[in-house]
Write a structure and sequence with these properties.
The complex is a heterodimer of chains A (about 475) and B (about 475).
Chain A (H helix, E strand, L loop, with lengths): L4 E11 L38 H13 L7 E2 L2 E4 L9 E4 L6 E10 L2 E14 L3 E4 L4 E4 L6 E7 L6 H18 L11 E10 L9 E6 L2 H20 L7 E6 L4 E7 L9 E2 L6 E2 L2 H10 L4 H12 L3 H8 L2 H12 L4 H19 L10 H12 L5 H13 L4 H7 L8 H14 L1 H8 L5 H11 L6 H14 L2
Parallel strand pairs in A: 11-12
Antiparallel strand pairs in A: 1-9, 1-10, 2-15, 3-4, 3-14, 5-6, 6-9, 7-8, 10-11, 12-13
Helix pairs in contact in A: 1-4, 2-3, 5-6, 6-8, 7-8, 7-9, 8-10, 12-14, 12-15, 14-15
Chain B lengths: L1 E2 L4 H10 L4 H19 L2 E4 L16 E5 L26 H8 L3 E6 L19 E2 L2 E5 L5 H8 L5 E6 L5 H7 L2 E4 L19 E6 L2 H11 L17 H4 L8 E5 L11 H19 L3 E5 L3 H5 L1 H16 L17 H12 L2 H14 L1 H28 L2 E5 L21 H4 L2 H6 L3 E9 L2 E8 L5 H15 L4 E2 L6
Parallel strand pairs in B: 3-4, 3-7, 10-11, 10-12
Antiparallel strand pairs in B: 1-15, 2-4, 5-6, 7-9, 8-9, 8-13, 12-14, 13-14
Helix pairs in contact in B: 6-16, 10-12, 10-13
The chains are: A alpha+beta (about 475), B alpha/beta (about 475).
């Protein structure tokens, strides 16, 4: 079987988590009764006009800057005209001619190898209404209509499914780190159009096939697998790929042709006349730049280089900004980076995953975790004990240090406390004292009795010293 | 002709003295509205009186009419189109809201050319509008009813919209004052869009003072319309009587040229214009002749058609019968949209949509749409330069008197008809522009138009007021024997 060069380009739509819609004051909310977040503007009643949402512009700019894009001097919008009931105006307000960011890039790491993914542009537009078709009627929910949507378009520069998925994860992470979207696929907050072409000639692009509106990254993976297989078979059989738009059905795991190039829609783009050009000042760009946190790619490198943790651990930690922030917070408060990484990627993450929780929703203070790890480092408790008690603390929603104390698992390092136990044991066994002074080897046996009484908590070194002293006193 | 003393100021005094009540004024207006409705068809809806809001405004208790393409919550608003024949808006246009808050009393919604596209008054879904001065003649449009109601003394003022000349040209045909402000001075929120970059809300009245009083109420920044200007606090009605010294005007030689007109009537219109210019000069204005490249001027009409049709195609794409409007068909989404639009629009509208769609097509956009935008910019730059040197441009408002029915239609013409189409220049640049009656030709009113630089509305109204006082047609209405 012939192998072909695969070239993938992605268009990622991301709903911004603004309070209101992009061009109206209706609420931008996922959990609302159907057709409750609507206004005259959303329904395009005659005479209504769009008013640009400043928060949406701000968040789009933040993303564009984080994607290392060129930012235009002025913001402007265009109309994309087509008739469909999910679009009440009969046109979508988007940015065809002057996107809010262009010619950017995002660094990703694929299996340990760095790659620069080129961003063609990122532009601000509005979402459409939700159409649900039934056997003999259709229902429209306009709640989604007008929600700000940021579309990020890559160059055709991804050469494997792995690279594509890795990019998508890095981009989603960027959205979350910048706080511009919750980027949840299950809520339709992030959706992809996938372009893929196969070519024998490594210097030339093959015929492009587009698959629209794929919801989850796993579906992107499956759709790409299916499409690459389909195209490979056609090419191997001497066939030709038709430039077309296909729809991937994630139930049937197949793609179907929607329309070919000849039927391509002419959207008759022109500048939106109701929105005057808006100046984007240098001060604003500077201000936004300062707000952008260190992103996944740089964080991983920082954690590896500065904290000496493994790439696997670093990658795991940065996947969730809240976890990464927690990790950094613990370190800032004096925690040991390596132990922290070990505990976070182990006990803590498995707890979060098991109960589908977010780290800010559990009772775990950075100081407590640091204290616990100090106990391990200082041999006050064993690594195993620490993990057990932490698991228990998380499950019972208790503070881990209180739990350590109440369970009495921490080592007894207080000399007087140990002495009391030593005295107790010796008082109860006067013959052992005699045996000791008679030169019999009972020392370790007495230690054993002390450990039994303290449930193993007595610090062994200190116990030997205290015991020896007490035995000598009773000579 | 007659003269009316029902100016806003006079009515204000009568209301304040208790000589009349707002109900009296409303009843009189309503009776007149019904009286002329069969003959002239000025209204789409004549309303019952609602309790007006309490206000100390000069307009409190004063009756008026709104063009039926301005959104009025709970009141039928049809844009004179079958596709919206039963449409009742759920929100108020900003201009209506401001008038309501000022206590002005809405008498009715006036007839327009369907969707404000057209200049004849013959394309409304409720039938043709006739010119009260001569019912065998057109009234012009698209603010047909709004000029008619003022010329018949039904109300002292009305609100219209102006995309190419839709207030200022019918005002000329009807002997009333028609004004469109600087783009962005009055909010367009709630005005059914025709061509957003050219659309203006404006005022029709019988004198410049009343225009100023109404504009003072309805102008101002609106958070719902991003193209509105910031408020500057100028009160036009205070400013119009100020002595602002002698002003410099110009007219465009190539447009006011006897050689370019081919009817006796048009020559008489030019005679009236040059007579008026002399009167204006005698007031102390200077009036100069300015020359502009004829090719550029000839492009005014095609440029207007290209841009307005392109924007109109898109602006009216919401009229599909799915989420509002007069739905026709039920088999499928496509069938509903197709049948609703096929049956909902008249032939003229469909022609303009097809034109607009063609102009915006990928393969035509550069040549037709973008070139039109470039010519628009050239013309605006030319005028903006001239407004640096001159205070305003004075021109004949039309190339003739109101045409007879059947005289002409919207069909594209080989002629550029400069005199008929130059008013669109003010829409291209968003320049303030006012038409004031300047006399009669063949017993029909004719008018001059004055246009000035953007945001010079106060000066424009001041100049217009001064000129109006010298011409002798202030507060003119249709005479009893004319109706």
């Amino acid at each position: 079987m012939m192998m072909y060069k695969v070239v993938i380009g992605l268009e990622v739509h991301c709903q911004l988590n603004t309070k209101s819609k992009n061009f109206s004051s209706s609420l931008n909310s996922y959990n609302s009764l159907v057709n409750s977040n609507i206004s005259s503007v959303d329904l395009a009643y005659p005479g209504t006009l769009p008013v640009v949402n400043k928060e949406a512009v701000y968040k789009s700019l933040k993303t564009a800057i984080a994607l290392n894009c060129e930012i235009p001097k002025y913001l402007s919008f265009d109309r994309k005209n087509y008739f469909y009931p999910d679009l009440p105006k009969g046109y979508q307000i988007t940015q065809m001619h002057n996107p809010i960011g262009k010619n950017g890039y995002l660094m990703i790491n694929v299996d340990g190898v760095d790659k620069k993914v080129l961003i063609h542009d990122t532009h601000l537009e509005e979402d459409t209404a939700n159409l649900n078709h039934y056997s003999n009627y259709s229902l429209i929910d306009y709640n989604r209509c007008g929600i700000p949507l940021l579309e990020t378009v890559t160059e055709p520069c991804l050469y494997s499914i792995k690279e594509a998925i890795c990019f998508l994860e890095a981009l989603r992470s960027l959205f979350i780190y910048c706080g511009i979207s919750d980027a949840r696929s299950d809520k339709g907050q992030i959706r992809c159009d996938v372009n893929v072409s196969l070519s024998k000639d490594y210097n030339k692009l093959g015929t492009r096939v587009e698959m629209k509106n794929i919801n989850t990254f796993n579906n992107v993976k499956e759709a790409l697998e299916y499409e690459i297989k389909r195209q490979t078979e056609i090419l191997n059989n001497g066939g030709k790929i038709i430039q077309e738009t296909r729809r991937y059905d994630d139930n049937l795991k197949q793609s179907f042709s929607m329309r070919n190039k000849v039927d391509a829609i002419d959207y008759k783009y022109f500048t939106e006349p109701n929105i005057p050009k808006i100046k984007i000042s240098d001060e604003l760009i500077t201000k936004i730049k300062e707000e952008i946190p260190m992103l996944q790619f740089d964080l991983v490198n920082k954690y590896i280089n500065e904290y000496n943790i493994s790439r696997v651990d670093a990658t795991t930690i940065v996947k969730d900004r809240k976890i990464s922030d927690f990790y950094q917070l613990c370190i800032n408060k004096g925690g040991n980076p390596i132990y922290l990484a070990n505990f976070i990627t182990g006990v803590i993450l498995s707890h979060l995953n098991k109960f589908n929780l977010s780290i800010d929703k559990i009772k775990l203070e950075a100081d407590s975790l640091n204290k616990l790890l100090d106990m391990v480092i200082n041999n006050k408790i064993s690594n195993k004990q620490a993990k057990e008690v932490l698991t228990k603390a998380l499950e019972e929603d208790k503070d881990v240090i209180s739990l350590v104390n109440s369970l009495n698992i921490s080592q007894i390092t207080n000399k007087d406390e140990i002495l009391n136990v030593v005295k107790e044991v010796l008082d109860e066994n006067p013959n052992l004292v005699k045996d000791y002074h008679d030169g019999k080897k009972v020392f370790d046996y007495i230690i054993g009795q002390i450990m039994k009484k303290t449930k193993g908590r007595a610090n062994p070194k200190l116990t030997s010293i205290v015991l020896k002293e007490e035995l000598d006193l009773r000579a | 002709m007659r003269f009316s003393d029902n100016t806003i100021s006079n009515l204000r005094i009568k209301l304040d003295k208790g000589e009349v009540s707002s109900l009296d004024l409303f009843n009189t207006a309503s009776a007149l509205a019904y009286k002329y409705q069969d003959d002239c068809n000025l209204f789409v809806s004549i309303l019952d009186k609602k309790d007006e809001e309490k206000s100390n405004s000069v307009l409190s208790g004063i009756p008026y009419a709104l063009k039926d393409n301005i959104s009025t919550k709970g009141i039928l608003t049809t844009a004179s189109s079958n596709i919206l024949k039963d449409y009742v808006p759920v929100y108020d246009a900003t201009v209506y809201k401001k008038l309501k808050e000022s206590g002005a009393v809405l008498v009715g919604k006036t007839t327009l050319d369907e969707l404000a596209m057209g200049g004849s008054g013959i394309t409304a879904h409720t039938g043709i509008v006739r010119n009260p001065w001569d019912k065998t003649r057109q009234i012009g449009g698209s603010s047909s009813g709004s000029v008619g109601v003022v010329s018949l003394d039904i109300v002292p003022f009305s609100i219209g919209s102006d995309t190419g000349d839709s207030i200022r040209k019918p005002a000329a045909y009807c002997g009333v004052v028609g004004y469109k402000p600087t783009y962005g001075l009055i909010s367009r929120y709630g005005l059914f869009a025709f061509a957003s970059s050219l659309d203006h809300v404006g005022v029709i009245a019988r004198n410049v003072k009343d225009i100023s009083l109404v504009t003072d109420i309805i102008k101002g920044h609106d958070d719902k319309d991003m193209t509105t200007l910031e408020d500057d606090g100028v009160k036009f009605s205070d400013y119009i009587n100020k002595d602002i010294g002698n002003k410099k005007l110009f007219y465009i030689k190539e447009i006011c040229d006897y050689n370019t007109v081919d009817t006796d009537e048009s020559k008489l219109v030019l005679d009236n214009f040059y007579d008026t210019v002399n009167k204006v000069k005698s007031l102390g204005f200077s009036v100069s002749e300015v020359s502009i490249d004829k090719d550029l001027l000839n492009a005014i009409y095609p440029t207007y058609m290209s841009i307005s049709c392109a924007e109109a195609t898109s602006n009216n794409a919401n009229l599909v019968g799915i989420h509002f409007g007069n739905r026709i068909g039920s088999k499928s989404i496509d069938e509903i949209m197709f049948e609703t639009r096929t049956n909902g629009f008249s032939e003229l509208i469909k022609r303009r949509f097809i034109l607009g769609s063609y102009i915006l097509q990928r393969e035509n956009q550069e040549k037709l749409y973008l070139n039109a935008c470039r010519i628009r910019r050239l013309l605006v730059e030319k005028l903006t330069d001239l407004f640096k040197e001159y205070d305003g441009m004075i021109m004949p408002a039309t190339g003739g008197i109101a045409p007879k029915f059947g005289d002409k239609s919207d069909n594209l013409s080989d002629k550029y008809l400069l005199l008929e189409n130059h008013l669109a220049l003010a829409n291209f640049g968003g320049f303030p522009s006012i038409t004031i009656p300047s006399g009669f030709v063949n017993k029909m009113p004719v008018a001059i138009n004055i246009t000035s630089g953007i945001k010079t509305d106060a000066m424009l109204l001041n100049m217009a007021s001064k000129i109006e006082n010298s011409l002798g047609y202030k507060n003119m209405i249709v005479g009893d024997d004319d109706v």
